[in-house]
Specification:
The chain is α+β, with helices and mostly antiparallel strands. The chain has 8 helices and 9 strands. The chain has helices spanning 79-83, 123-136, 177-180, 190-202, 215-228, 247-260, 280-283, 292-298; strands at residues 7-13, 16-24, 65-70, 73-77, 92-99, 109-117, 139-146, 149-158, 161-167. The protein has a 7-stranded mixed β-barrel with strand order 1-2-6-9-8-7-5. Strands 3-4 form a two-stranded antiparallel ribbon. The radius of gyration is 27 Å and the shape is extended.
């Protein structure tokens, strides 16, 4: 079952309109998450919304938004007033222009969404917009309101649907000059470039996300499982960087190391991809002391953490 849509409305290109739904293309629900606990009691920490001056707890229905004018002055804005900011992009993604994908600076990219037709009508119009973008190799730029904010969204074809990527506004992107101005202008010799290119060729491959593993997430799972099993926790040695005295010598040694190292896995020993676990709960060992039905499962070793591929 597809997740709940974050937004529903209409996609419009000039006089062509179709109902669409916007779904999140990514999820972090599989990641390990921690709660804050009271060290003395082991109980969870509960956060309460309190009045900054009186210290009294405030009910949710009495909490409103406010814009800070100065230290002690706020302009109160109600939910109704925010809803009355009637932008057309609240219910309609109006395509304003078409650009080449290469023209979009990666710094402006925020997060991806899937855009699909909503319901049984409008599939023809949706397909016309999708295939036009595909044939002309263009990205459509429009606007959409999410979480009470208007965002720029870039739409491009993906299989039978569209992928929409939210974009940042210029005021949200910092200039690189203040960070890069102090970098020294260094002349790189041809010999150094040739050695570096040789290393790149040795490590050349293809982008295959299934090969990636979140090593920190795996280490967290192992840590939790060891603690639940009552095993002692030992600190691992941290890797230390080496001071490069002779850059040419370091490049030559890198080539020698990579050439002799296991750069390729023989076909007869290649491991089959492991099945992804359903979620975090399946990765960790069951908690001891649960119902009898779960006691048997508690003796089984914890499954190795794997993430579902996109």
């Amino acid at each position: 079952m597809a997740p709940r849509a974050n937004w529903k409305g209409f996609l419009r290109l000039s006089l062509v309109t179709c109902p669409v739904a916007l779904y999140p293309a990514t999820s972090e629900s599989e990641k390990v998450s921690f709660n804050q606990l009271n060290r003395k009691t082991g109980h969870r920490i509960k956060y309460a919304k309190v009045d900054a001056d009186t210290g009294e707890e405030v009910d949710n229905e009495d909490i409103v938004k406010g814009y800070k004018v100065d230290t002690d002055t706020f302009i109160e804005v109600t939910k109704e007033e925010l809803e009355n900011v009637a932008l057309e992009s609240t219910r309609t993604i109006e395509i304003d222009e078409f650009v080449d994908r290469s023209e979009i600076d990666p710094r402006y990219l925020i997060r991806p969404y899937y855009l699909t037709p909503d319901g049984k009508v409008g599939h023809d119009a949706f397909a016309v917009i999708r295939e036009t973008l595909r044939d002309m190799n263009k990205v459509a730029i429009g606007r959409v309101v999410l979480t009470n904010r208007e965002h720029i969204i870039a739409l491009e074809p993906m299989d039978k649907g569209l992928m929409g990527t939210l974009l940042r506004y210029p005021y949200e992107v910092r200039s690189a000059d203040e960070y890069f101005d102090d970098i020294q202008d260094v002349k790189v010799t041809k010999d150094m470039l040739d050695l570096a290119k040789h290393i790149v060729n040795q490590k050349a491959g293809h982008f295959e996300p299934d090969k990636f593993e979140d090593q920190y997430e795996t280490a967290l799972i192992d840590l939790i499982n060891q603690k639940r099993a009552g095993k002692p926790i030992t600190a691992k040695a941290r890797p230390r960087g080496e001071n490069i005295v002779d850059l040419m010598d370091a490049l030559r040694k890198s080539i020698g190391r990579d050439a002799t190292g296991p750069t390729e896995v023989p076909k007869n020993t290649a491991r089959k991809p492991r099945k992804a676990a359903a979620g975090q709960k399946e990765m960790l060992m069951p908690i001891a002391g649960k119902k009898a039905a779960k006691e048997g499962a508690a003796k089984k070793p914890a499954a190795k953490p794997q993430r579902k591929s996109a």
